[in-house]
Amino acid sequence: MSVRRSGRNRTRIDYAALNETHTIQEHNVHPHTQAFKEFHDASTLDDKVCVIENPLETFDDEKLRDLVYKTRLLKPILIRGANPNVSDTYNSNIQLSFEIPAYDMDQVTEKVGEDHKVPVMDVMTQNNSPFWNMAKWRDYYQQSREERDKVRNVISLEISETELGREIKIPKIVEDLDIVYKLFEDNSKLNFSQLLDESGIVPPKVQKYILMSIAGSYTDFHIDFAGTSVYYSPISGHKQFILFPPLKRNLEIYKKWCLSDDQNKTWLPSLIPTLKQSEIARLRQTRTPEAYLNNGFAIDIFPGDLLLLPSMWIHSVYTKENSIIIGGNYLNLLSLKTHLQAHQIEIATRVDEQFKFPNFVKFVWLIAYYLIKNNDYDEAIHEEIVSLLNFLKEQWTFVSKAGGKSFTRRDRLLVSKIKSAIPKEVIGDVPAFLEELKIKVDKTCDNSEEPTRKKLKVENSNT
Ligand SMILES: O=C(O)CCC(=O)C(=O)O
Ligand SMILES: [Fe+2]
Question: In this structure, which of 90, 117, 157, 349 has its CB flanked by the most CB atoms within 10 Å?
């Protein structure tokens, strides 16, 4: 199982200093809560999110698919009242295929299992505490505010293999987009799933999480692992997100902030300057997606809503009321380039393995294999495929140039890690495989309006 958030690099809260000015109760308030609330008051949604609310006509899977492809999954999509099981808010014109039962905490506990282990985050330190199971968590969740010792949050409990998980059907659009899910799908033509099975490659468990948050919980700014896109749908409660688009300069600031020692003292948005009109004009010239040209914003998420968060958006989350949410993460072809970029950011910000997408690099090789065998790509994802080829070439170059005097112990470890990520038993000879991929890319280049071969040079990505 992959844990979704890291407390790494975070300084401990100085409780002694807090004691001088705060009451014990206030120890449960994360230092950024106030700043979050002020930010929230200051912003409006405008055209920054595609909001589907009270549609006059049916909004179904087909319409959502059109919207996703029109926006290339670059802009957040929020569909209000999408879950028929949340009858208070459900809008019957919304007819999307997914199944998320609206269980309360007792039912969730029963369906997950009382003894099931639960990774619990201490909101103040943002670290996970061991030794919790569902029964203990249920008892804690049902306590009154006065009875609780601390504010705790559960955001990393994957439930695919529980009774609850088996009852949940993820949104059809997510199932269609999730490229790793596709690898494991039964496909008689390619028999891909059997090949993976024989090679001992198992599906990553990241599709179905249950999040259970006590009011006052706060999850500080982060990018979800491998820049995965997210679906997020509350059953109960009230959540608030602050979102920043993955503009290059936002990512640079984010990286520096992650590497600094004082995330608890520094409110990330205070480091991000407001975009000037002249900069917006310049970014437009560089083909920066229109959906990225904003200064960050807050959104409220209610029971029955379905939020589709695009790849690599920087976000923090505040819990207004005790909340239960079903959500999940997925890699998709439209966002392949940003997934690869997010992977480099994780390396640069020294994210621990346990907080990463499981076997990410292996899956990148397998995605390439799938694309070659399935002939499943076109001009629409041209740039993504070029990035894919560049990334894999780089991996291979690093491994094949391994050795020599300048190689440190760290380099050797890295080489063995990169080597073990190559699924040779599936893809066969690596240079031949890369050549095959290059030929395919060249073909799409020929059909594309993009500047062609120049793009194939291996970009230096030592972020
Ligand atoms: O709901 C929360 O507190 C955090 C949600 C989130 O962004 C995540 O789990 O990655
Ligand atoms: Fe997140």
Answer: 157
